[in-house]
Amino acid sequence: MAPVPKEGELPPQQIHYLRDISFNNYKPEPFYQNYQQDVPIAIDLGTLNWRIGLTNSSEPNNIFPGVISRYRDRKAMKTLTLIGNDCFADSVLKSTMKTPYDGPLITNWDYIEFMLDYSFEHLGVVSDNGKLNNPIIMTEPITCPHNQRKNMYELLFEAYQTPKVSFGIDSLFSYYYNSNGRSNGLVIGTGNQSTSIIPVIEGKGLMSQAKRIDWGGDQCQSYLSRLLSLKYPYFPNKLNSSHTTNLFKDFCYISSDYQSELSHILDMDVLEEKDIVAQAPVEIQVKEESKKTEDELAQQSLKRKEQGKRLQQQAQQKRIEKLAQKQEEFDYYTQFKQDNINTPVDEFEDKLINAGFDNLEDFNKYLTSLDRSLKRAQHNDDEDDEIDPAQSWPLVDIPDDQLTEEQIKEKRKQKLHKANVEARERNRELKKQEEEAKIQFEKEQEEWRSRDLDDWSTTKRLEVAELISAYKEKQKLLESFKDRKSAAAQQRMKYIADLANDETGSTSAQSRKRRRNANATIDNDPNDNFGANDEDWNAYREITNSSLEDELEEINKKILKVEDELIKYDPNFHIEDTFAAATKFDWKNSVLHKFIHGPRPNITIAMQAEGLSPEEIAMHPETLKKNHQLHLNVERIRVPEILFQPSMGGYDQAGISEISSDLLRRRLDGNFSPGGQSYNLSQDIFVTGGLALLPGFQKRLEVDFKSFLPTGAPLKVRIAKDPVLDAWHGMQKWANSSDSRNAYVNKKEYDEFGPEYIKEHGLGNSCIFDF
To answer: pLDDT tens for residues 476-489?
Structure first.
């Protein structure tokens, strides 16, 4: 039982698993047991499926995919040829499956012969004269090319020596089965490779006005595959034609008002209903980790503390050893300097260079550095000890005229030491005062809150509002620097140009004034007078963004501090009211997020908010599951819409409704009063073929036809009883009726007139040759 969602939470979406070809459900093709000679054999030669049977039966005996697989058995040294469903007996054969078609046309006639042999064998065909003693009724594409019919004639008449053959169009056979044979209507046949629109007048197709759209079921699945590849370019699973075909059949539908539905399909309430989640197979390895007890956690924490203490002791020991090493070096070099006090300077420098120093100056700097480090360490050690001024700095209060030169130098050192100690004392006092002021401020704030919480909350909210306003102003200024045409960016460039002019000898009054005030510089360089005035340093603030970024960070810290207080004490202030929550990404307002992830938040963002590491997020079972999901929303209506707007698929053709409007209003008599051709056809709009199974097809045709038919014109749209099998049913009905009596081409006529000869009938193509 599914868990009941809490208030405000969305229920879990239904998961649909991708369906592929199942090799476990294979069943061998049945063999017909009631074969009879002279009974016509009906063959619906589809590019997707073949449907074959004797016309003395009400249903086709064999229905199988139009594929062939040739497999070389190396042990038996034989090449096996497998047809139709037999190719799905083993997954090894899947990679070798081929089709004899290229689009709607046959390109490999050897494969067609293999498949016909397979079909006749399963029909139980036997012969005592080495011939196929059954007439053949076969479907062919609309406006079938001469080369296709010629090769099929040769195969049937010369290879199988069939007595007679007749060809027809599948959609007209389907209409024949669903009518009385003398009906008027507009037949829309949706096939695997194309869609045809044929007017039928008194049971006969008007082929001179027939139209074809080069879009069918195969193009639909291919188009859906390309859309999903663009939508999910890094999808871990490879989608094959079976996946996309099943997705198209199961979830796509025809919208009655495409533009209106498209404009609202990504609205949250509509998306909640329309979005489909397709789950691809994924293996998730769940690691079972034993939960640690409280004692184990406490012991682990104690170990961490002990480890921290050991690290601190090791660091202290290293500092002591390093300090002792510095003391040894200082004593050594001090004694070295004392021993060479009477040595000539050149000779002493040679000794220093041999000892690893650059010169005398480098040696003095190193010695001074060691002395400073040792004194600093000593001062840190004696920092907490009480200092007696009379003992620590005995020379500070004695006038200089009472001291020798050495004592005056020592007095200067003592004065510096005294100043450092007094500065540290002042810092301690300032910190103490700050702590007391902080405690006093907190006390006042607490009294204020207890006295009047509303006033305190209002004041803090105003403070937050002012800080947010200042933050946005600074951020706006920072963003303006990215636009080189903005006023801030132009001013910035002006400052940079002014600085460059000063360096290259500018003649401005300000530059001349700076050069005259050479004494104001630190090193008395007459060419370096920048910084003499305080305004000079503002130039750096104008040409760099670092100060703005620091100010933004400081304002953001103040905002967070005040908001924390409000969250803690104001019962009406929540996390959703904070500045961060207001500026964070809202997936519900992101069209791209809803298009790719559907009406649910991205689980990765939620895991990041929980503080999980990127590795944990990547390997989390929910993340792996989500990464193997496809969301179908816009694609559900976009793919079938190409039947009505082929330009969306890149075809320079009109759609079903536009072609039908042109036929009924212009190419036929355009008479919508009783007795007119257009009147009779609009009363029966017949849809057949595999795409007729798409939900919404009938309603869309009704809406579109009403938009162009005159007021009061009759309209009836209907779908075939069985859009997939009714073509074969129509062939079976036609073969057993008198309409087929003179519609066959026999072997004698073929030999006399050649492969260009056909006999016209109401359900086939027209002849374009004169005899």
So the answer is: 777 766 555 555 55
Residues 6+ apart with CB under 8 A from 691: 190, 195, 216, 217, 220, 640, 643, 697
Q: Tens digits of per-residue pLDDT, 650-666?
A: 999 999 999 999 999 99
Q: What is the 3-state secondary structure (H, E, C) of 144-209?
A: CCHHHHHHHHHHHHHHCCCCEEEEECHHHHHHHHCCCCCCCEEEEEECCCCEEEEEEECCEECHHH
**Which residue type does 465 have?**
A
Higher-confidence position of 699 and 284: 699
Average pLDDT of the chain to the nearest whole number: 83
Whether residue 769 has pLDDT greater than 60 = no
Q: Token pair for residue 107?
A: 């390109």
Cα–Cα distance between 537 and 531 in angstroms, integer? 6
What pTM value is reported for the model? 0.66
Provide φ and ψ at 516, rounded to 5°. Answer: -70, -30
Pick from 762, 767, 760: which is nearest to 173 by CA? 762
Written as one string, the DSSP assignment of 85-106 is GGGGS-GGGGGGEE-SEETTEE
What pLDDT does 26 receive?
74
Would you say 175 and 730 are in contact if contact means Cβ atoms under 8 Å apart? yes
The length of the chain, given as a count of residues: 771
722-to-171, 653, 730 alpha-carbon distances in Å: 12, 28, 11
**What is the topology classification, in CATH, of domain 41-178+726-753?**
Nucleotidyltransferase; domain 5 (3.30.420)
Query: In the chain, what are the domain boundaries?
Result: 41-178+726-753, 217-284+639-718, 298-431
Q: What residues contact residue 613 under an 8 Å CB cut-off, 6+ apart? A: none
Question: For 469, what's the count of Cα atoms within 13 Å in the CB-facing half-sphere?
Answer: 6
Residue 584 is predicted with a pLDDT of 66
